[in-house]
Amino acid sequence: MIETYLLDWANLLLRWLHLITGIAWIGASFYFVMLDTSLKPPKKAEDARRGVFGELWAVHGGGFYCSQKFLTGPKGEPLSNDLHWSKWEAYTTWMSGFALLVVIYWIGASSYLIDSQVLALTPAAAIGISIAVLVAGWVVYDLLCRTLIGRDRLLAALVFVFVMAMNWALHQVFSARGAYIHVGAMLGTMMVANVFFHIIPGQKRMVEQIRAGQDVDGRPGIVGKQRSVHNTYFTLPVLFIMISNHYPMTYASKHGWLVLAVLMVAGVLIRQFFVLRHRGQLKWWLPASGAALIAALVVAMAPRPADAGAAAVSFAAVKAVIDSRCVACHAAQPSWEGFAQPPKGVTLQSAEQIGQHAAKIAETVSNGYMPLGNLTHITADERALIATWAAQGARLAD
Questions:
Q1: What are the residue boundaries of the Cytochrome c domain, all occurrences included (predicted)?
Q2: Which residue among 244, 269, 300 closes a domain?
Q3: Residue 8 included in any domain
């Protein structure tokens, strides 16, 4: 019991850290993309002679700022020793996210990662596949980027196809929730590896050349810019995946991988709108298309009503199913190993508690999300029984 209690605290604190550092990383990323796409040629001739490529005047927090970009460092003057490196936000976000993956999906593999109805895996095998996904995702993506230099549209298309293929494949291996989080973890690993292996090392080489008085090779800056742009398009899909575990209606549906694909495309379209807006281009069809995709998804995923005209379902029959399939976890003191408290604080031991959560019980049981990984082996007939009971008004008295 004490181990489960401490794991819950580790889960909470790591989520908090992950959220804080993620905000810092994504905020910095969004800001620099905005800055880079909003630059105007320097107005002063002496700034151009100093190597200023572009500048942006801004006002914020009661002050005025002038940001200037040097492609290969300042000319005719030393490079400041007071450089700020935007990297630890990225590294800490990934490390805290990886720690969460370990605490929730590796230690709790039997509950959160494995679904025997999808594929019968041992925890060791599931964890091994999890590691392989993170490594293989980066290797394939990086190889595509290195191979297709200067062919950005083809590269974008192939990266999209690769991510969608992995999205589908992961849904054939893990639980729906586990598949979603691994798509996000794979993208997040690509993003932080871009920073660690390309953006920061390339910038360090350029700094060394500037300080040594050598001609500066601008190629690392070009690669860094490319990888930074990729990161900004990965951001909205990754953010959605980070919060998706609270909404099983998305991943627990029959075609969860397709739902994720549509939402990822919508996120990219919306992000593209903001990127172009910084350049002064207002392409309203982009967010409109993203919103239309989401609206179409909402309509397509709307639950089909159960047959309310079927034979009346007794509450006693429903409670018997809940007692045998749900209460092991959803009790004031869960008896299922690994749970120190009921998931989301929901207890289902009394008629009043069941009535309070009737709609959510019907939804999560009908779409297959609950019980987690079907650990208690609920049957299709029992799922249909609960759905019919809810459709008939969720009566608590026979």
A1: 306-394
A2: 300
A3: no
Q: Which residues of 43-74 are buried (b: 16+ CB within 10 A; e: fewer)?
A: eeeebeebbbebbbeeeeeeeeeeeeebeebe
Rounded to the nearest 10°, the torsion over CA 238, 244, 245, 250 is -130
Same domain, 291 and 367: no
Residue 131 lies in a domain: yes
Contact of 109 with 126, CB cutoff 8 Å: yes
Residues 280 and 320 in one domain: no
CB 271 within 8 A of CB 233: yes
Distance from C-alpha of 31 to C-alpha of 84, rounded to nearest angstrom: 15
Asked if residue 382 is part of any domain, the answer here is yes
Q: Which amino acid is at 386?
A: I
pLDDT score of 308 more than 60: no
pLDDT digits (tens, 9 = 90+) for 255-303: 899 999 999 999 999 999 999 998 889 999 999 999 999 999 999 988 7
Looking at the structure, do residues 251 and 151 belong to the same domain, yes or no? yes
Nearest to 34, CA basis, from 61, 2, 12, 67 = 67
Same domain for 242 and 363: no
160-184, pLDDT tens digit by residue? 999 999 999 999 999 999 999 999 9
The model's pTM is 0.86
Tokens, residue 359: 């709609």
Same domain, 138 and 174: yes
Q: How far apart are CA 33 and CA 279, in angstroms?
A: 10
Confidence of residue 309 (pLDDT cuts 50, 70, 90): low
Q: Does residue 209 lie in a domain region?
A: yes
- From 244, 268, 300, give the residue that closes a domain: 300
* Domain match, 288 and 342 both: no
| Residue-level pLDDT at 354 | 86
- The parent domain of residue 350 ranges over 315-391
Residue 92 has pLDDT above 70, yes or no: yes
Where would I find the H helices in the chain? 2-38, 45-49, 88-100, 123-147, 152-170, 176-193, 200-211, 219-244, 248-251, 256-278, 285-300, 315-325, 351-356, 358-366, 380-391
Q: How many domains does the chain have?
A: 2
